[in-house]
Amino acid sequence: MFIADFKDFRNIYLIEELFRWKQKWAEKNGKKGNFFSSGYREFLFRLLKDEAGTGKFNLFVLALDGRPIAVNLVAVERDTIHGIQAAFDEAYGKFTPGSLLLEHIVKWAFDSRRDFDFGAGGGKYKTVWAGESCYSSTDFRISTSNWGKLAFVLSDVRRWYRARRFGLVHKGKETQAYRLRSELEP
């Protein structure tokens, strides 16, 4: 296991692997979302290269014979490690490389006296790790300025437009077959 150094441009391919593996998983499981957009991909590249931010982002890599077989993107804060996105080469799926890598990352977090936050979503692996300490939460987003209010309005207009554009509104109501938010969004 190692942490990719993105000062070395040769490691950029690891992000491509993350997207490729996640895309295969999404297609296999019928998932869709903004995660696969070129804009989000560029955002991740910049995030991993940025050293000026207040936090830090690491891409952990599990390799076999020098070849990556699992990657896990995390946000590192002073007291907490936040899981962001993970993927693995399905050719090695029966060996659970994602779980093996996650075990190393959680150990790394605890060894550095940090908590590990699995993040939003209901992945089965989370309950295995969390045991009885698993709980649901609700995310409230509150505007504290006129700019924030404008952002919420624009977000709602965008969702409304997408629903209309893809024929997901019937007699003024959204169909239950499609959620306006991505299945990959928290």
Automatic annotation (TrEMBL):
Segments traversing the membrane: none
Database matches in Pfam families: Acetyltransf_6
InterPro entries per UniProt: Acyl_CoA_acyltransferase (IPR016181), BioF2-like_GNAT_dom (IPR038740)
Gene3D superfamilies, per the entry: 3.40.630.30
Domain BioF2-like acetyltransferase: 15-126
Name of the molecule in the record: BioF2-like acetyltransferase domain-containing protein
